[in-house]
Amino acid sequence: MNGQNSRWGAGVAAVAPLVVVAPFWFALTWLAGRLLAALTPLPWWSVPLAWLAAGLTLFWRPVQIAALAPVVGGRAPTTDEWSRLAPIWAAVSSRANLRDDRFVLRVVDSNDLNAFACGGHLVLVTTFALDHLDDEQLAGVLAHEVGHHLGLHTVALTAMHWLSLPITQVSRTAFVLQNVATAATDAFVAHSSALTALGRVCAGIARGIAWALLSIVYAADATANLVAHRSEFDADRRAIQMGFGTPLAGALRKVVALGHGGRAVGWRARLQASHPAARTRIARIEAVLRHPSNLQPG
């Protein structure tokens, strides 16, 4: 029951960043829709509906392979890389009761020991991880990333980023307008105190709008990072259920040995940290391995 409650809690928590950003996304697309409706025969709801429809394509497998993977730096494994990854990937898929092609494996050229799940279909692993993890540790890491997909953690995160785009773009536009208003005031109306005051007010309004919108994005990101801690533990638990708990702990020890995965110090660092400390994850994994009765199927 504890395992089921943990997974249910992780699933509910995963939508928290969406709750933060969705009302403001709707407000902006509603305003854009009203403007469009005033200028064209199209109804106001065509803007938010079109944005949602475009967002749905992000979860279409061909789009993720063709567009999303390159955006995050992913490429198809080389022949040598695939000759090593194929049996490991097959073992992980088998333990998870999945077809080998259920998710798409990609490689990122990076000097970081890392792997991550993205969208609804992608699992990415760095070349550094391939070079420094043995086969069992690599299997543990891949099982953890598959666990993220099985927990639908990446779906909520991708949706949050998509809904955040209009907010971010309007914020950037407001910053540009602030700079334009300031420059125009200094260049053309410096001789008039009244017009200078008006220019300063316009610049201040633009700056206030920009920072207000940007703070929404920051709040959503901070919420996503806090939620991500619970998602990491849930993905660890799923990897343990697949039988990869010990190799996953071994991979995390490698992270610690390389000087990474430390505990965030200070509230600001905690808000910016998307992963719990590696040592904390190791301790939790070992605790579950000592008491496997805490694991529940499904």
Written description of the protein model:
- The protein has helices at residues 2-14, 16-39, 46-57, 61-71, 79-95, 127-132, 135-150, 153-188, 193-241, 245-257, 267-272, 278-290; strands spanning 74-75, 104-108, 115-118, 122-126.
- A hairpin with a 3-residue loop joins strand 3 (115-118) and strand 4 (122-126).
- It has 298 residues and is mostly helical.
- The mean pLDDT is 86.
- The relative contact order is 0.12.
- The protein is built from twelve helices and four strands, in the order H-H-H-H-E-H-E-E-E-H-H-H-H-H-H-H.
- It has one domain (2-294).
- The longest helix is centred in the last third of the chain and has 49 residues, at 193-241.
- The protein has a four-stranded mixed β-sheet, sandwiched between helices.
- The chain is elongated, with a radius of gyration of 23 Å.
- Helix 2 packs across helix 8 (153-188), helix 8 (153-188) packs antiparallel against helix 9 and helix 9 (193-241) packs parallel to helix 12.
- Helix content is 72%, strand content 5%.
- The termini are close together.
